[in-house]
């Protein structure tokens, strides 16, 4: 397009640039994209356009310049005239002001005099109307200063109803009217300040008030108990005596009790003696006159609720001492004693519904606090003192009409915790008793010592009584000590059950359950731990079994003991039985199992001392030393077992023989033992013969026939088979019920035969050409093959 009409094109581009409507980028791009020299030509056109515009601007300025110069000249002329006019106006105004000053002063004086005359007349008239109001208001101020607030309130009523309506149009009256609510508020604040002082006073005296109330409750309870006991004693004595002396003595004791009660009443202060309640009455009366009684009631109740929350908040270390609990209880009792007093001496300030709501809230908090803090108590004496405090606390508030059943329910929870602390304490007692015991029968040298033991433990044995001194009880010292401590535990558990307002049947049931826990959990655990201790030997285990037998027999005496201290008839059907039978039976079973284990361990220790020469050609002709020592040890041990029940001793003896037989068999079949000579087998046979002789000597009475010898029957048949070399009979009768070698397993025989086969080869290297040796070797190989076929057949059959 630039080649056809370049001048027109540039004109169009400049027009587009001046329009400010189209994007300039596309326009400029069209200039540079058409021809190489287009930029230079475009710039020339642009400069020419700029020069044209400059000429037009210059023409326009030349055209308007003369008019602008003429306007400035006219404006300068007007400024001169305006200044002259201003001077003239100012001079005229000053003359007018000077002429009117005297007139204005005289006029103002006249107006002022007339106003004063009128005001004086008005004031005289109205003062006669206002003076009575001012006098009454002055009287009100005097009453306020004298703190006669009730009279001041009456004066306010007179002012509002009689005097203020007469002068209500005056400002001072409005000020007085506006000030009366403030005065009423001042009276409210002053009376409220007295109430706050009262609240602070009762907060400080809550401890003393509660302590006084609890002391009174304790004295009343003590007197009631003493009176009941006196009545029971009097009734019992009247049943046995008809004379005058018992009755006179009862009267003297009862009179003394009344005198002590009178002395206590004189010493104990009442709540009115400790706290002045007049601020409450005065404040309540003032708020009633003001018609704002509801506000006062709401404030009082709100503040008391805040104080209740503070009182119910315990100290963090309250559980450490009984004094912490006592301080907590006395504060709460003091709080509710004050509320009960306010309830009975005022009308509406505190209602029964309000106190019940407050008590229920407090009771929930108290129970939560006691449940939390009592869980930290590990001392049973502290828990017992806490229980006594809770009972006294509940009895005190119950005397003021507050329901306390939930507190006694809480005591049952604390009772379980008390039992747990007792169980922990008695666990330590039992451990100490077991540690101090020598686990030997109690020796006695005279009648006095005999009676001392009998007084501690209910032991009856006519045979022992007939024996002459010195003699021995079958149990050790721990038995009477355990029995005494169980009774002490029952006494300690009974202490908590007292004063819980429960029947004798319930107390008896609680004692039996606690005693069962002591026997089945604590004592049983201590016995089991004792039995499992490494230093407890076989002799000690035997004595433990004897001890548990006597403790089990004594359980019926413990039941009678509980029945006697709770005064429950023995014919009561639903009484809980003591579980001593199962407890001591389990302990005996554990001790018996430990005896079997330790006896087998001792046998293993002796067997480990065995030192066989498995390649010897000829036996020594006597049994091994380790085995004779083992047999002597077993004889001495089984002598101690004579005090055990027959089945226990028999089981231990049979277990020991079977374990010895198994150990000897394992020694022969040990995989590390590669070669065994016939001489070694013969020597081994001598040891087995000693074992059989020991079994036949009846080390423990009660075995029938050769029952004990059967423990070594597997060894006997195996050794006979090899010493007689009766393989033909074994192979021919294998699997027959009447087989001579019925207890010999083919696998066992094969293992031992292979060990002897290797030995035979080693010893006959240079004699292999002798006919007898060759025949024996062939026989061994033949038997080995047959035994392997039997073993394979057994495995396939399995």
TrEMBL record:
GO biological process: Golgi to plasma membrane transport; intracellular protein transport; vesicle tethering involved in exocytosis
GO CC annotation: exocyst; plasma membrane
High-level lineage: Eukaryota, Metazoa, Chordata, Craniata, Vertebrata
Summary of the function given for this chain in its UniProt record: Component of the exocyst complex involved in the docking of exocytic vesicles with fusion sites on the plasma membrane.
Record keywords, A-Z: Exocytosis, Transport
Protein name: Exocyst complex component
Exocyst complex subunit EXOC6/Sec15 C-terminal domain residues: 407-755
Record bears the keyword Transmembrane helix: no
Domain Exocyst complex component EXOC6/Sec15 N-terminal: 45-214
Coiled-coil ranges per UniProt: none
Species of provenance: Panthera tigris altaica (Siberian tiger)
Family: Belongs to the SEC15 family.
């Amino acid at each position: 397009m630039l080649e056809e009409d370049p001048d027109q094109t540039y004109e169009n581009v400049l027009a587009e640039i001046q329009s400010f409507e189209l994007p300039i980028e596309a326009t400029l791009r069209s200039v540079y994209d058409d021809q190489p020299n287009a930029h230079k030509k475009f710039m020339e056109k642009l400069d020419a356009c700029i020069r044209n515009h400059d000429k037009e601007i210059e023409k326009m300025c030349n055209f308007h310049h003369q008019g602008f110069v003429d306007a400035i000249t006219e404006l300068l002329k007007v400024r001169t005239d305006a200044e002259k006019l201003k001077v003239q106006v100012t001079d005229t105004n000053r003359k007018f002001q000077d002429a009117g000053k005297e007139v204005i002063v005289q006029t103002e004086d006249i107006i002022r005099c007339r106003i004063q005359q009128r005001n004086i007349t008005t004031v005289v008239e109205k003062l006669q109307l206002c003076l009575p109001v001012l006098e009454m208001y002055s009287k009100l101020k005097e009453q306020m200063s004298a703190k006669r607030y009730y009279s001041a309130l009456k004066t306010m009523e007179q002012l509002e109803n009689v005097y203020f309506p007469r002068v209500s149009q005056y400002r001072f009256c409005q000020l007085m009217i506006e000030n009366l609510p403030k005065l009423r508020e001042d009276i409210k604040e002053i009376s409220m300040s007295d109430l706050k002082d009262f609240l602070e006073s009762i907060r400080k005296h809550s401890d003393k008030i509660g302590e006084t109330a609890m002391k009174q409750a304790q004295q009343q309870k003590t007197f009631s108990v003493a009176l009941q006991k006196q009545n029971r004693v009097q009734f019992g004595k009247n049943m046995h005596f008809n004379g005058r002396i018992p009755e006179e003595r009862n009267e003297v004791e009862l009179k003394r009790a009344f005198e002590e009660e009178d002395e206590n009443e004189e010493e104990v202060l009442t709540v009115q003696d400790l706290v002045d309640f007049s601020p409450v009455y005065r404040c309540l009366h003032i708020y009633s006159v003001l018609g704002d009684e509801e506000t006062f009631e709401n404030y009082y109740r709100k503040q008391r609720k805040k104080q209740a929350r503070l009182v119910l908040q315990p100290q963090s270390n309250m559980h450490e001492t009984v004094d912490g609990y006592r301080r907590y209880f006395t504060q709460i009792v003091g709080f509710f004693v004050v509320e009960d007093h306010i309830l009975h001496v005022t009308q509406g300030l505190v209602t029964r519904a309000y106190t019940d709501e407050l008590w229920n809230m407090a009771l929930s908090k108290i129970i939560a606090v006691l449940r939390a803090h009592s869980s930290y108590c590990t001392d049973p004496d502290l828990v017992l003192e806490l229980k006594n405090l809770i009972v006294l606390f509940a009895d005190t508030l119950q005397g003021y009409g507050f329901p306390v059943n939930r507190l006694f329910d809480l005591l049952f929870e604390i009772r379980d915790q008390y039992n747990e602390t007792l169980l922990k304490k008695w666990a330590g007692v039992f451990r100490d008793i077991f540690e101090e015991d020598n686990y030997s029968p109690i020796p006695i040298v005279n009648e006095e010592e005999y009676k001392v033991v009998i007084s501690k433990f209910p032991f009856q044995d006519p045979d022992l009584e007939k024996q002459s001194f010195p003699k021995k009880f079958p149990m050790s010292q721990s038995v009477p000590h355990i029995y005494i401590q169980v009774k002490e535990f029952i006494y300690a558990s009974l202490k908590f059950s007292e004063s819980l307002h429960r029947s004798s049947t319930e107390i008896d049931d609680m004692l039996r359950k606690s005693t069962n826990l002591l026997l089945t959990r604590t004592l049983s655990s201590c016995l089991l731990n004792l039995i499992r201790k490494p230093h407890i030997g076989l002799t000690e285990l035997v004595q433990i079994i004897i001890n548990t037998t006597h403790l089990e027999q004594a359980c019926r005496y413990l039941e009678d003991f509980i029945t006697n201290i709770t005064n429950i008839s023995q014919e009561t059907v639903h009484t809980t039985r003591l579980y001593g039978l199962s407890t001591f039976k389990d302990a005996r079973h554990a001790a018996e199992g430990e005896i079997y284990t330790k006896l087998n361990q001792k046998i293993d220790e002796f067997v480990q001392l065995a030192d066989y020469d498995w390649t010897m050609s000829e036996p020594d002709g006597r049994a091994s030393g380790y085995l004779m020592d083992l047999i002597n040890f077993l004889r001495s041990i089984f002598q101690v077992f004579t005090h055990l029940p027959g089945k226990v001793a028999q089981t231990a003896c049979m277990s020991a023989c079977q374990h010895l037989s198994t150990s000897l068999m394992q020694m022969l079949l040990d995989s590390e033992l590669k070669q065994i000579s016939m001489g070694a087998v013969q020597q081994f046979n001598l040891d087995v013969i000693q074992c059989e002789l020991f079994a036949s000597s009846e080390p423990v009475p009660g075995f029938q026939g050769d029952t004990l010898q059967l423990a070594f029957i597997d060894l006997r048949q195996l050794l006979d088979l090899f010493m007689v070399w009766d393989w033909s009979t074994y192979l021919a009768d294998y699997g027959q019920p009447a087989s001579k070698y019925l207890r010999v397993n083919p696998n066992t025989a094969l293992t031992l035969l292979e060990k002897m086969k290797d030995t035979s080869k080693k010893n006959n290297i240079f004699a292999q050409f002798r006919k007898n040796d060759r025949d024996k070797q062939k026989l061994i190989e033949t038997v080995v093959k047959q035994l392997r076929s039997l073993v394979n057949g057994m495995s396939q059959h399995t």
